Structure formats: structure tokens, C-alpha cells
Amino acid sequence: MATQDKIAVVGSGLIGRAWAIVFARAGMDVTLWDQFPQQTTQAMAFIADRLPELQANGLLSEEPATVLARIKPMPSLWDAVHAATHIQENGPERVEIKTAVFAELERAAQPHATIASSSSGIPASAFTEGLRTRERCLIAHPVNPPYLVPLVELCPAPWTDPAAVAATRALMERAGQVPATVKKEVDGFALNRLQGALLAEAFRLLADDVISPADLDALVKHGLGLRWSFMGPLETIDLNAPGGLADYCNRYGPLYAKMQEQMKPLDWDSALVDRLHDARRTELPANMQAVRQEWRDRRLMALLAHKASQPD
Description:
alpha/beta
């Protein structure tokens, strides 16, 4: 399975360690670095624990030890990135930090290496404008955790070379991910805007006491989410009317127009947030949060294994 790709993962927190699994599982050599060495140690322990579970679910085609051996912790940023063909940055969501890190990456990386950020909301233009080689920089925003949720958004800055986007898209496909290219910078990219639209209406319904928090989660978990786990919204409505998408829009367009008139912006004020937070803690005590996260990851493993066994 070995490939010619050499990947540097910079930042080994929740996202960085997950990226390391993605690339190593695909046969790629991975170097892993974090400014806090204990973070890298914890990441390697996490990866060693996860790989056997992935194998047990049919999501790993090699022995866990073989995959783990492809991931090499590095003592310095230069050691991690100087030979890489692709660098995946996973630092804090702060412009000043990313600006400084990308300046260091530019100095240490090979001229032909692409440099991608896992930023979930900060556009590449906010921290790459001053670089000499800014044309090779872009966003590669994963869904957490990327080793279980394959979608990754690719979003260039206005000056990103289309060849860098194409190379990153091809790399992600080789790594088993599903890339989606966002053609231009918008706040939140595309995935977060879709999620934000659903959250906005969810908070509105809860603020107006239309439904309980538990029942609202049930609407998605046992309703919309079942279809959305294997179909997008356009395919969903295309199949929900005899004449396809246009027929659906003709039938239900007026209803959706009326609903949109009622969907006024709503501030997530502290009273609303506190009420919803308390409802969640009633459902899930704070000391069970980590246990539930483990449950989530195992359910995602099972779902991913099922989807892999089914025709597209």
C-alpha cells in the first residue's frame, strides 16, 4: 500500500491525530509534530488504541502495527515538514497563530509542497496573504473525526493556484476521503453554513417553545438524518415528488417561502444557551461526556463499515 506521498501533520490534538490515521491507513508516511511534546505522546497512544478497533470493523486493510509504524513523531517543526509533499496544519483557530505558523511552514517546507489548514472557519486569505509562496496554500477542512467521516472541504484563497487545489483533491481521494471544493471564500465555508442553517432554525423553534430539546434531536436522529446519511438534500427532494426536483419545488415552494419569511435572525442569548445546556446536561451528565464521545465514534465506525459494504 505504500505511496510516494509524504505527509506532515502539524498539531497533534483531536484533528491532527485523526488526520495521521487517515493518511497512514492509506499507505502514506506521516510525520507528526506538536509544540507540546506530551500532546504528540498522547496522540500516538490514542492512534495505537484506535487502529485495532478500525481493523475489527473492517476499516483497516493492514495490521495495526504496520499502519502505526508509518507515523513518526518528530522533535521539531523543521524535522516534520522539510521532506513533506503535503502539510496539514491543525493549530488553534486564531488568525495570529496561523499567520505565524504558516510563515514558519513556508521557511521549512520544500517549494513544491502544498500547505493546507484544517481551519473550520478562518479563510486562508486571512493568514497567507503575506507569504512569498501563498499560491500553494489553501483550506482542507475535515469533519470531526476525519478518520470516520470522510468529507473534507477544499477552499482556496483568491491567490491559490488551481493546481494546488487539484493536487490536494487528488491526495484526499488517494487517502480515501471525499473532497468537496468550495469555489470561493465564504464565512464558514459550505458545510458549516448548512449546519448553521439547521442550528439557527433549531434554536428558533426551541426559543419559541415549539418543541422540547430531546424531541428536536429526535427529528434529525430518527428522521432527516437517516436519509442524509446516504443522500444529500437535493437528491432527497428529487426523490420525494413524482416529477423530481422541479415538481417538488412547484408543490412545496410556497410553503418554504412562507417559512423563510418567519426565519428571522435570532441571537443565541445567554438565557437560551443556558436553558439548552441544562437540558443537555440532564440528558447527559458532564462526567459522561467522554464516554458518549467514545460511543459516538464507535457508532460512526459501524455506520462507515455498513456504508462501505453497500452499493453507492
